[in-house]
Amino acid sequence: MRRLIEHDDASGIQAAVAEKLRRIISFLQDMEKQDETPDRAELEAHQLTGDRKGTWSLFVTKNWD
Question: Long-range contacts made by residues 13-22, C-beta under 8 angstroms, separation at least 24?
């Protein structure tokens, strides 16, 4: 992840996931406030519940077999 963020180097990341990670990273870097709602559908964002209420999660991919 560090190589992807700092150098746009996706080596070690599955090609099918790299572009979505780039979009997520771009969104997070462009946020003006920490509590900004990620309302873009392609991020598949959802709020967590329970003791994590108020925390957002962004779906990257399903588990790989």
Answer: 14/61, 14/64, 16/61, 17/60, 17/61, 20/60, 20/61, 21/60
Name the pTM for this structure.
0.66
The 10s digit of each residue's pLDDT in 35-53 is 666 666 667 788 889 999 9
CB-CB contact of 59 with 44 (8 Å): yes
How many Cβ atoms from other residues are within 10 Å of residue 11's Cβ? 8
CB–CB of 8/18 below 8 Å? no
